[in-house]
From TrEMBL, chain A:
Chief place where the protein resides: membrane
Recorded family membership: Belongs to the binding-protein-dependent transport system permease family.
Example of a GO biological process term: transmembrane transport
Subcellular compartments: Cell inner membrane; Cell membrane
Organism phylogeny: Bacteria, Pseudomonadati, Bacteroidota, Cytophagia, Cytophagales
Protein name: Iron(III) transport system permease protein
Residue stretches making up the ABC transmembrane type-1 domain: 38-243, 314-518
Organism of provenance: Mongoliibacter ruber
Topology of the protein relative to the lipid bilayer: Multi-pass membrane protein
From TrEMBL, chain B:
Annotated protein name in UniProt: Iron(III) transport system ATP-binding protein
A GO cellular component entry from the record: ATP-binding cassette (ABC) transporter complex
Lineage: Bacteria, Pseudomonadati, Bacteroidota, Cytophagia, Cytophagales
PROSITE patterns: ABC_TRANSPORTER_1 (PS00211), ABC_TRANSPORTER_2 (PS50893)
UniProt-listed InterPro entries: AAA+_ATPase (IPR003593), ABC_SmlMolc_Importer (IPR050093), ABC_transporter-like_ATP-bd (IPR003439), ABC_transporter-like_CS (IPR017871), ABC_transpr_FbpC (IPR015853), Mo/tungstate-bd_C_term_dom (IPR008995), P-loop_NTPase (IPR027417), Transp-assoc_OB_typ2 (IPR013611)
Source organism of the structure: Mongoliibacter ruber
Keywords: ATP-binding, Cell membrane, Ion transport, Iron, Iron transport, Membrane, Nucleotide-binding, Transport
Superkingdom assignment: Bacteria
One GO BP: quaternary ammonium group transport
Domain (ABC transporter): residue spans on this chain: 4-237
Entry's Gene Ontology molecular function annotations: ABC-type ferric iron transporter activity; ATP binding; ATP hydrolysis activity
Amino acid sequence: MLILLLIATPLFTIFFKLFDKPGDSWQHIVNNLLFGYFQNTILILIGVAIMTFLLGVSTAWLVSNYEFPGRKYFEWLLILPLGFPGYIMAYTYVGLLDYTGPIQVFLRNTFDIQVRGSLLDIMNLPGAIFILSITLFPYVFLISRSSFVQQSKTLQEASFLLGKNRMQTFFKVALPMARPAIVAGIALASMEVLNDYGTVKYFGVNTFTTGIFRAWFSLGDASTAIYLAAILMVFVFVILYMESAQRGNRQYASSKDVQKPLIRTIPTVGKKILYTSICTIIFLVSFFVPFLQLLHWVSMTYSKVINADFWLLVYRSFVLAAVSGAVVVALSVILLYTLRLSPFRWVKNITKVATLGYAIPGAVIAVGIMIPLLSLDKWIYTTFISAKAAGLFFSGTLLALIFAYIVRFMAVGYNPVEAGFQKIGMHVNEASRLLGARSTKTLWKIDLPLIKTSLISGILLVFVDVLKELPLTLILRPFNYQTLATKAFDMATNEMIAESANAALIIILTGIIPIIFLNKLIKKREP
Amino acid sequence: MKILSLQNVHKKYQDAKDFAVNDVSFDVEEGEILALVGESGSGKTTVLRLIAGLEHPDSGTISLSGHIIVSGKQSVPANERQVGMVFQDYALFPHLTILENVKFGLKKSAGNPTKIAEDTLNLVGLSEDYQKYPHQLSGGQQQRVALARAIAPNPKILLMDEPFSNLDAMLKDQVREEIRQIIKKTGITAIFVTHDTKDALSTADRVAILHKGYLQQIDIPKHLYESPVNPYVANFFGKRNEIIATPLEEGWHTTFGFIADTEAKKYKNKVKLMFRPEHGEVVKRDGQQLTGRIVKISYFGSHQMVKLADDEGKRVTIRTNPGRSFDGVERSFFYLWKYDIEEAF
């Protein structure tokens, strides 16, 4: 119970602080900035939704329905962009399209084309949509691919026999049946958009997330930050609501288990070339080219950047991420085990609260944690030390940062652990207790060894997410404390893009490991 | 009139050693119900899918109402064949209502799709619940919807893959009869696949039996049952007993006793006498009979099966009425009123 209360802290904070008077700068923001925040946030959300839909669904359909050269590789190559945090993708592309970047240099030297500045300028709203879409479309790709693959083959056959061709079948049967999955994927991508700070900040596009930062850092106005966070949360709940409401009365899984393995169609040679090119281009744009650019930068700068300090940074980031991962998984085990042994229904619903954090943007969590901690510090100081001095006790410590990571990434670690528990079922546990082992002993001797892989994957997934995390870390990190993510972002914003590539590359490479791992997990479930 | 014709159709799946369908040829008459029977792996479902256009043969031709739809590697795609199919798992679109499912295959040009769909649903005995989704219906109702969806576009031929396998025994007899009546009422030509001989014999006008990809026999049910062309077909439709018999002047000498038969003198060597359990009768001692020791009596409600053994331990099974009591009886007499003679040696 205590765990749950702690995890819900940021939400409570924001809710209760809403009743306080808004800060001085609130009026200023309402008058001058709020409309822009709204407009930009909504435009980016819509733009990314459309782009991820087009990119994700088209590639998922090709990969799951046709046999063409490279199909097997694209199944996981197209997931790799997930390893690219948006902000890194953003400044990599800025570098790529720069006056001195490879594309303009190539055009100039080969064709003597001088590109007008505005043409390749992506540091604007459409640019942000582009960057966020190519990093987030794999969510839609992954989830709709597994939906397409799991659709009963006979439904497609039934549609053919009723006179529909392949195109009509796609639009009338396959697509509507995959709709809940696709919408879930887009909803996931939208959450990431709302969470994003690095990309929009770097591109100078003002959204609610940048607004929170502005209120917090520049204006020093906590209650205005809270107000903005509350509005951002409204966006989150609207998206969550739309996602669950669109399911309606229908059932989308086929009711029968009798399913034929999906046989992929072998298209004509021309179409094979077309399909392979589509997937190749998307892969090149969304991963390979920016990745090469990063490698190039690293090769230019590694001798300057990589020194003892850099390794210390890597070490600290890894420890921070590993500790967070371990704590999240440990808490998940405690929660789930209590749940398993608890006879009460309401316990089940309450634990769902624990996984809500993933939907809440990092900046909101940061603000929601910072404010109660600041007042706690104040109270401790005035009560125990001196009424006059004010200092930091919890706020601005690693403890606060780890706590925030736990709130935000609880779901990431919780879900694999839950899946693990579900898979082993209740009977082994009951058998063990009937044989006389106490429930704690049963947990150590029976359940935990059985769900070992789930535990490891939980830790790994949290680890990677923490490593990439930017907005929350920027707000809550101790003074002058750097992680790989913040270092990369700071360097990039300070015109040291090439140097920042070293930290970025480590983040991406670590991020790729669980992606491949995750893909294997999904593949196993497919028929 | 011939509506469907298969000629020398071959099909081998990738990576498979043997042909799934091997040189199969047969015709189907308009308005006829044909059953394709066989064990699993006999190729019966493949034949159905070849006709539907969901698989393509390696060689052979298939023609449907006068048009060649398959000739060697050339074939008309499934969505242009006007073939209706009821899938084993029904394959109802879960995201569409009952009515939308039935309307799915109807063209706007064909009149009023909603009206046609409703009429077809009425025909199969579903007069309400048009707006429900498939998962809200029972298995039997889902099957009716699948049938309605298949026949609504007025296909040239209706194919059904194991139409009765998902129904429980109680429902099966009723559904079998209903479906037969619906098909006959619409006058549509139908082919269905089944592994259940009872389904085939009771529902179909003609039955085709497949074994290892080869067509064994195609005939009306009575002929298949009573005059099978080979032992495989004979055994497929029910148990057959065999007794080894030596021909004598007036009849057969067997280990169960003597059978008077003037046919016997035409044979020189030992033969096998083949007969189904219902072709024998258990009787009280009365003239010339066979006799055996009672080994086992199995009670089935509608009848009993009596297993009898000769002195060497060879066994035959005779069917008898359920009222007969065998309490305290160790040996029983029986006679055969019908058997086939097979020269096996």
